[in-house]
Structures are given as structure tokens and as C-alpha cells.
Model the fold of this input.
Amino acid sequence: MHIYNRQQIADQVKLDAAALEAVEAGFAALGRGEVEMPPILSMNIAESNGEVDVKTAHIRGWPRFAIKISPGFFDNPALGLPSLNGLMLLFSAKTGLVDAVLFDEGYLTDIRTALAGAIAAKHLSRSNAQSVAVIGAGLQAELQVAALRLVRDIREVHVYSRDRHKAETYAAHMQTSYGLSVSVHDSAASACKQADIVVTTTPAREPVLHWADLPEGVHVTAMGSDNPHKNELQASILANADVLVVDRLSQSRALGELHHSPDLQREVFELGNLICNQQIARSNDQQITVCDLTGTGVQDTAIANYAARLLEGA
Done:
């Protein structure tokens, strides 16, 4: 058994095309019905504004399966601590023995979450998309844009955060680190006006994005709603979008955006099905597409297997 720390893992696993391919392969296997993935075990720790999720999945034919423990404590930044933490345990799919402990402190979760957003945009956004609006100004606001650059020629960013100072700090960082043109806005509606892609990256309990905010032809990725009390999208967005996609239908209904629209009567696709069937969901550049990402155990097993291969060869 090997134990790897965050730095060892980060030295090997990058936000790059190879990692994206690994996570996309996991989604494709899910779409083909080759994955055993139980519901998420989730526990809220209300007095500390915290939550803990346990996710797992086995992909048939893959050498290992992962069990991930992922705490999220959202008051931590005020204490000088990260909001997210955790680790992944890798087991042999043949013997059940522990192969490795990936004490990544949430790093692999951050990477696979960002890559899932890029995969959604790859299959749903317009191919000529260049402008992205980001709602929120935390780490995922950065990583989602960085990952999008793997699949689209992103040139400008529009950001809105309830905390203006955080938005301005984010803008300066994205300009310096990525060479992007970044504009800070006073509302989500303003940020979205010229966007080809919109990404919501918040732990909001009430919608931060409304149907009236969305321009023609935009793609929306909502990645913040992963608990029943979270809600980023107005219900009319789910009802009116031309194409609605989720990472896992049962999860979105239990704890994602679909949880807040139990009476919604419309066709909803799973991202893995689109990938494995090479299905083109968007039929023209005027359609509005939406993808709700709740975060799946198959992403964790995919990125953990990928990380283990790299670490073993280091």
C-alpha cells in the first residue's frame, strides 16, 4: 500500500487533456451501463456550516475502485482554512485490498469537478464559444475557466460575486495567471449579457441565475448544487432550456437542481449517455443548453485511477 500526499499528487496530476480524457472515459462507461455507483452518503453539520459526502463507484474492467471522503466547511475561509478537504482510498477491484491512500486534501475533487464542467461544455456549448460568465469567485471559478480552455478558445471572462472585493481579486488573478480579459459586474444578469458559456460556482441556497439573465445560444453549467438545500438555478431555466442534461438523473433529483423542480415534465439527458452515443444534443446555435453537475463517484474512481498510474510511474 502506498500513501501519497497532496504535493506528490499535484506534481503528477494536472488540469490537462490527459486528465480530461480519463474523466470523460468514466462518464462514457457510466453511459454504457458499465458502472456500479451507489447513492451518495451525505451528512450535514449545520452548526459549522459544513457537510461531508462519501462517494464511490466501480467501473467494470478497471483495476481499482475509489471511495472518497469529502468534507466541505464553508465558513473556513474566515479562519484562513480551505472550504474543501478530504482524501480518496483506492482498492483493488480484484482482491478488495487497499492499493493506495491519496491524501489529496480535496485536490483531485477540484480537478475532476473542473474537468466535468469542461466535458459538459465540450458536448453542449457552441463550438465557437469564446466568452464565459462565472457566478462566484472561489477556486472553482478559476478552475472551471482553466478547464474550459482545454475544449474552447476562451478569451474573455465576466465575473459576478456578491463580494465585490473577491470578484476584483479574482479578476486580477485571472488576468495575471491566464492572460485573459476579465470584467467585474454588479449583477449576474450583467455578467451574462455577452457570454457564450455561463458557469455557476456557488453554495447558494436560493437561485443566483434567472431565465431572464440568459442570452440566446448560451450554455449553462451549474456545479454548485450538490445538497438538497442548495439551489443555483431558477426553476424556469430547467423548464425553458432547449436541452437539459445532468450527470446522474437520480442524483440531480435527490440533491441537485431537479430536486427543486419535482413536477418538471420534460426530457432530461444524462451526460454519459450523450458521450457514449456520440449524440449531438444541440441542433443549432440559438438553443440554450443547461447541464447540472452534482459530482459523481465515477468521476472520483476515474481521476483516482489516473492519478495512481502517474504516481506509480513517477
Observations:
- The two ends are 16 Å apart (CA to CA).
- The chain has a mean pLDDT of 96.
